[in-house]
Amino acid sequence: MPGRTSIRPEKTQRVASLAKSIQEAPVAALVGFRGVPAAAMQKMRKELRGRGHPIVVAPNSAIRHALEAAARERPALRPLLEHVTDQTAILVARGNPFGLSKELDETRSPTPARGGELAPKDIFVPGGTTSFKPGPIVGELQQAGFPAAIEKGKVVLKKDTTIVRAGQPIPRNVATLLTRLDILPLEVGLDLRALVDGDTFYAPAVLRVDLDAQRASVGAAHRLALGVALELAWTSRTTTPLLVSRAHRIALAVALEIGDISKVTLPHLVGRAVRQAKAVADLGGS
Questions:
Q1: How confident is the model at residue 281, as a pLDDT?
Q2: % of the chain exceeding 90 in pLDDT
Q3: Fewer CB atoms near the end CB (10 Å): N or C, the chain?
Q4: In this predicted structure, what is the pLDDT of residue 45?
Q5: How is domain 9-108+189-208 classified at the architecture level of CATH?
Q6: Sign of the torsion formed by the C-alpha atoms of 30, 103, 203 and 19
Q7: What is the separation of C-alpha 272 from the centre of its chain, rounded to a whole number of angstroms?
Q8: Chain segment 35-84, per-residue pLDDT in tens
Q9: CATH superfamily placement of domain 123-185
Q10: Are 54 and 17 in contact (CB under 8 A)?
Q11: Rounded to an integer, what distance in angstroms lies between the CA atom of residue 155 and that of residue 178?
Q12: What is the pLDDT of residues 144-203, one digit of tens each?
């Protein structure tokens, strides 16, 4: 038809291949990579591919078409379409989605601000002596809101300061001074936007859990439950050996207290008698 734009076969084939990998992989995730330098992105992709988590970078239109095609066979993928914004990549994987989220978080590293970015959290500047030499830098710091002064020939920040609040833009002059103070307020790395594991959709906030804290919490709960079970003498595969061991200790203590002689108690009773006799002999010698 006149005016109709033709789609190159290689593009159609690429979308079909991407749709197939999304549909067949247990885990499909959308990953943002805004601000990641090309060299760093190449390294991250290589490391994740080595772990069996290949990342495919494609135009957002191709990702949308691939998701729509895959979602016809696997409807759980459809919510991912809402998260195809900005610079987006597709990651397909097998395994634990929580572990995958942690892997992506570990790709993030501190980076300096250039000015104009929104502070992801409060930017805190500690007070104390700086490495700056006295001079115009003091005025620059003061103009940018840093509590700078000269004391004993050194440039100091007189108190701890929150120089930019979370969500506020970082002024260019503040960004320059933060870099000179070796304060890197931003992070660069792969940003997990959304994930589908099987038929379950996960938002990033659900996946970002402190696994070490969770393990510690489960361990504490286990110890508490075990203590209660032992107190109630509840028998199970876990508690029975501990209950038998405790009963043995109690029975042995009672038998020794009343002087009951048996194959088990005799060595303990003889040992106690020897120690008592030695104590008496020592008193007589003194």
A1: 80
A2: 38
A3: N
A4: 86
A5: 2-Layer Sandwich (3.30)
A6: positive
A7: 56
A8: 787 888 888 888 888 888 888 888 999 999 999 999 998 999 999 999 99
A9: Ribosomal protein L10, N-terminal fragment, domain II (3.90.105.20)
A10: no
A11: 15
A12: 999 999 998 999 999 999 999 999 999 999 999 999 999 999 888 888 899 999 889 988
SS (H, E, C) the chain: CCCCCCCCHHHHHHHHHHHHHHHHCCEEEEEECCCCCHHHHHHHHHHHHHCCCCEEECCHHHHHHHHHHHHHHCHHHHHHHHHCCCCEEEEEECCCHHHHHHHHHCCCEEECCCCCCECCCCEEECCEECCCCCCCHHHHHHHHCCCEEEECCEEEECCCEEEECCCCECCHHHHHHHHHCCCCCEEECCEEEEEEECCEEECHHHHCCCHHHHHHHHHHHHHHHHHHHHHCCCCCCCHHHHHHHHHHHHHHHHHHHHCCCCCCHHHHHHHHHHHHHHHHHHHHHC
Backbone dihedral angles phi then psi of residue 34, each to the nearest 5 degrees:
-60, 130
Cβ(55)–Cβ(27) under 8 Å? no
**CA–CA dist 107, 25 (Å, integer):** 22
Q: Please state, in angstroms and rounded to a whole number, the distance separating the CA atoms of residues 266 and 228.
A: 34
Question: 95: number of CA atoms within 13 Å, CB side?
Answer: 12
- Cα within 13 Å of Cα(126), Cβ side: 5
Q: What is the pLDDT of residue 156?
A: 94
Count the neighbouring beta carbons within 10 Å of the beta carbon of residue 115: 14
**Alpha carbon distance 146, 142 (integer Å):** 5
Domain regions of the chain by residue span: 9-108+189-208, 123-185, 214-285
Q: How far apart are the first and last CA of the chain?
A: 120
